[in-house]
Amino acid sequence: MNRDDDSVWHYPERFLLAAFLLLLAWAPFPYGSNRPWAELALGMGLGGILLMWSGLALTGFVPVTPQLRRLALPALCLIAALGWGFVQSVNLKAFADTTGLSLVALAHPLWDMAGAALGSKVGAYVSVDPELTRQAVFAASLSIGAFLVAFELARDRDRAGSIVSGIVVIAFLYAAVALGSFYAKFDFQSWLMPDPKLDTARVTGPFVNPNHFATFSALAAIAGLGLFVEKLRQSIVWDRGTRLILRTGLQALTGEVALLFVMIVTTVSALLLTQSRGGVIAFFLGTVALITALTVGRRANKGESSGQRAMAALLVTVLGIAAAVSADPLLGRVQEQGVTDNARANIAQSTMKAIESAPLMGHGFGAFERYYPLFSDGAVTGNVDEAHNDILETFADLGIPAGLAYLAVPVILAWMCFQGCLNRRRDRIFPAIAFAASVVVGIHAAVEFSLQVPAVAVTYAALLGLGVAQSWRTNMDLIR
Description:
Mean pLDDT: 84
Number of helices: 20
Strand content: under 5%
Number of domains: 1
């Protein structure tokens, strides 16, 4: 199917792409969409895009890639995990009354204690808080929607590039505003939100928690670094002598590439000023993963090998510039508080007790805030609503079997992206970015809960979706 420049805007995918980018741009603003009304608005937006795409696909106006079948294994894992999450929220007494099949023995013992204490009939659920579990299943569906939209749209390499570029620009704008607000001591966002943020000496951007802004910025910075080195790799002639390398290099470092460089440095500077120890470590390890993903695979010729080494050195240089500009506050916080966090360690120990208490059934997807006090030793005071370790919290929420199924989904998809880096030469930058982004969120998830913030989750899902979509040659699609 040929598409000329005059007719490309008539294709409905362009409108879906524009709507998707607008939604990704909106998601961070209302505190990362980490408020019920903002999360609902994000869900309605993603649902609307998926509904439009489904209608267009059914009527034949947009093609459906046959590569969807490659997602069968992660889809089965996801259905099993979220299916169990849904079962956790079902009133087993009402289910028994309706069907005659009694599964009340599966209910959490807390409900028997509640019934005895209240002296009245109460429901029986696997989850200690079925409403929070339903909300968690809904929140997980946001990432699924973002992944599917990105996967279908990004089978076209130009649209894949537009999504990555859009995420980089969105994060840059938020980073620029965050830096301006930080140095001007003025946060206009708090004027527009019903619950203003607390003052802090750390850059938080549009998020309440600076650690969440760190994850969001790290994802965009990884995407920007990938685009940066790819554009330079394509622009510089590597195998015709040093003089030509320098000349083409200087020509490349102008215009779009120079603007991209500024956006990367700004985003990384904001990341460092969040003073998030886990976020910064995850970002630097993600950069190593990006370099690795871009250098593995088919054997490169002499010119390509020189280009790969130069690109790796350039990545290190960019990181060094950003670190020199903004690292002092982070280093000061590390010197003052150290690298480890005793509070997180205590919460992790309590979470492991929760896992041991219900290793198969779990205590309820998303219900950590309710069951944590049952296992806390009191070392951490105040309200603890997250485990600050998404991996342990998932096992405590869903139980080990369903938790493994849930965590297997991004691992399988990230492995698909790495295989794409091994097998593809053209457009391998997209699966490389997705793989590196997976490393970032995977490492930070061990000490934080950024992936439970909708804006971070859908941004990562979009990068992962386009990476998986570009892990196979686009000419493998039967409909083109």
